[in-house]
Amino acid sequence: MFREEVLQGLQDSRKELPSKYFYDDKGSYLFEQICELDEYYPTRTELGIMQANISEIASLLGPQCLLIEYGSGSSTKTRLLLDALQSPAGYVPIEISKEQLLRSVASLTQAYPQLEVLPICADYTGDFALPNPSKLVFRRVAYFPGSTIGNFDREPAQHFLRQIARTCRGGGLLIGVDLKKDFNILHRAYNDAQGVTAQFNLHLLERINQELDADFQLAHFGHYAFYNPGQSRIEMHLVSLTNQVVHIGEVEISFKLGESIWTESSYKYTLSEFAQLAAGAGLTMQHVWTDPQQLFSVQYLSIA
Ligand code: AVI
Predict the structure, then answer these.
(1) Which of 122, 178, 197, 259 has the most crowded Cβ, counting Cβ within 10 A?
(2) For residue 235, how far is its CA from the centre of ligand 1 (angstroms)?
(3) Which of 96, 71, 121, 94 is nearest to 2 (CA)?
(4) By percentage, how much of the chain surpasses pLDDT 90?
């Protein structure tokens, strides 16, 4: 799958690579470093919103809810919710990395001995069967923090929300959504002074070298991220700094000087734009929490 998607993406007239491939061990580590940067406001802002409003959030989710986390990673943010929820019926972390899933399940079961943890090792955008907890479920609630929804183009984002709506019929979705703001704040967040985001972006080429027998020279590509206001998204690219030919196994890919590989989009929404997107997928905005500067939002949407 990785090889096919990489070759297909690089043989297109507009070269692109799927951003989901950033997250191998080193990529996940670099992303954690990004989350700690002064310039990268989303992580700490979302955490602050959650901390400030956790009792209200927990009471909206209600007692005996089955919490289903899409792309649970290390489940660190989830602990805040698990601490506050009233007798949760269970926790279903969905994570593609088996090692990460096993690690987080082990530490969660230790920290929450009463909680039934029902892990699913899968790509959360695909199909999976939801396990049945032994406790009575009053409401299924999907949890999708981090504004990862911003990394989906609009149509796939709506498709994914529709999938959540099917899984959690009669329940809801708790989601982190990054908001539109001053372009300069956005620009800094994706062009940090230490160059960690550049390293994260370039690591995709390193991963292709390691896993697909390729010979990308990282010094021959440059990190380029900007806000595209017409499309309401940050676009992240790797720009070829020279005319060059790269090999992926037997396949040759040529790059002209200045040609780019589009590696990620990160869409930013107004509250009403997101409410409209969600409504199209059958979700109704119930409550929105933001920070004082309105940089980020945590939203609870209900599903009929
Ligand atoms: C995971 N995702 C929400 C991040 C974002 O802000 O779009 C990924 C990222 N890319 C560069 N910096 C962070």
Answers:
(1) 178
(2) 10
(3) 96
(4) 94
Q: What is the pLDDT of residues 70-95, one digit of tens each?
A: 999 888 889 999 999 999 999 999 99
CB 13 within 8 A of CB 21: no
The sign one gets for the Cα dihedral 163, 164, 170, 175 is: negative
Mutate which of 266, 268, 296 for ligand 1 pocket (most atoms within 8 A of beta carbon): 266
CA-CA distances (angstroms) from residue 241 to 14, 156, 175, 218, 223? 17, 32, 38, 10, 10
Mutate to test the pocket of ligand 1, among 22, 72, 237, 264 (most ligand atoms within 8 A of CB): 264
pLDDT tens digits along 131-178: 999 999 999 999 999 999 999 999 999 999 999 999 999 999 999 999
What's the 89 CA to ligand 1 centre distance in angstroms? 31
Instruction: Please give the distance, rounded to the nearest whole angstrom, from the Cα atom of residue 14 to the centre of ligand 1.
Output: 22
pTM flag (> 0.85) = yes
Which ligand 1 atom sits closest to the C-alpha of 146?
3
Which amino acid makes up residue 234?
A: I
In DSSP notation, 125-164 reads: TS--PPP--SSPPSEEEEEE-TTGGGGS-HHHHHHHHHHH
